Inverse folding.
């Protein structure tokens, strides 16, 4: 009888240990790379298993090359339909700095697996995020919708909004600008 009781206790404790084990979710966002910039920090958030291990994080920064925005794949995609939101607002001034960074270095590459860029200055953060994994993207693809969202939704000193029908490297996507890394 004691052996049966010990076996039941052992099996129960194994089941409880397995249930409480932390399993890493490969769809969660993690800070993949950070770069000090403009009196703050630019962070790249994404899914580690998708980001290429040999990615050149310095590619395209401070280049003198003229960047030309790509043509939209269809009339609707690239129309950047702006929608404002009252929650998760980021300071407009911090988001303006992030937009300026995107405009200043449009040829800087964003590897597959990255789904958000954040700019932090002090305790304030602004995030540009997008839905889906976009391959071989450049920062410049993010600037137009981010600038329009800031202009349309950031007049009160804080901004939270999103744009639908954004062309990101010929993929039609939704792009957000707020204080959180989700879209």
């Amino acid at each position: 009888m004691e052996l049966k009781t010990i076996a039941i206790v052992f099996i129960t404790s194994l089941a409880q240990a397995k249930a409480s084990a932390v399993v890493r979710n490969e769809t969660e966002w993690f800070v993949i790379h950070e770069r000090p910039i403009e009196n703050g920090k630019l962070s790249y958030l994404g899914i580690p298993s998708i980001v290429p291990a040999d990615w050149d994080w310095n590619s395209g920064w401070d280049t003198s090359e003229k960047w030309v925005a790509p043509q939209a794949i269809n009339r609707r995609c690239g129309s950047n339909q702006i929608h404002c939101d009252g929650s998760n607002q980021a300071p407009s001034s911090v988001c303006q700095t992030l937009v300026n960074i995107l405009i200043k270095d449009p040829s800087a590459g964003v590897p597959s697996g990255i789904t958000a860029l954040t700019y932090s200055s002090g305790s304030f953060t602004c995030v540009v995020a997008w839905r889906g994994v976009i391959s071989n993207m450049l920062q410049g693809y993010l600037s137009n919708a981010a600038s329009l969202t800031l202009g349309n939704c950031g007049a009160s000193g804080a901004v939270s909004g999103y744009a639908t029908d954004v062309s990101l490297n010929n993929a039609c996507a939704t792009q957000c600008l707020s204080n959180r890394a989700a879209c």
